Amino acid sequence: HAVGGNVIGYIELVNKLSHKYNYYGIQNINIHGKELLHVASLQELAQIYINEILKIQDDGEFIFMGASMGGNIGFEMSRQLINQGKKVKSIYMLDTWTDFSNDFQQEESFKTHLAEQEKYIAELKDVDADILHNLTLARWDLAQLLTAYKPVKCNIPIILLKAKDLDNTHLSNLDAKDNGWAA
Fold this sequence. Notes:
Elements: H1 6-16, H2 42-56, E1 61-67, H3 69-83, E2 87-94, H4 102-105, H5 107-122, H6 129-148, E3 158-161, H7 168-171
Helix pairs in contact: 2-3, 5-6
């Protein structure tokens, strides 16, 4: 899950990782095209991504990394793959939460947060107006999936990396050292 100028940061990160693995990025499912794909749950979205991943690699060991909601999706993909008998070594999460404040779940507050992030998205040179419009429409729907998602515990080693400073929306979230993942 890449937002705004972070795409370049992901490429730089991958370039520093071991060359013994293949790395694949999954772009927000609604960033391309004229129509938005609507799903009923984060579990359903994870299954769509799993179907695509298994076309590339249907066996072996998986390691996931996701930022923000991407960490939740990576966790759910890991859980579903394990249930299918696949091996998941670990998941790396960057600022991924399990519980969200009421402010985060209020459409008006969330839209204010979106407005703060829009400037970063607009800076991407390869994003045209239709793509930006679709991404903006999809983000509130995706936020609804995220806040409704309750992770089902499973045996996946989680490496959580947290920002030192939080934006205004996340400041009101549960103040937990583990962002709620150990609960």
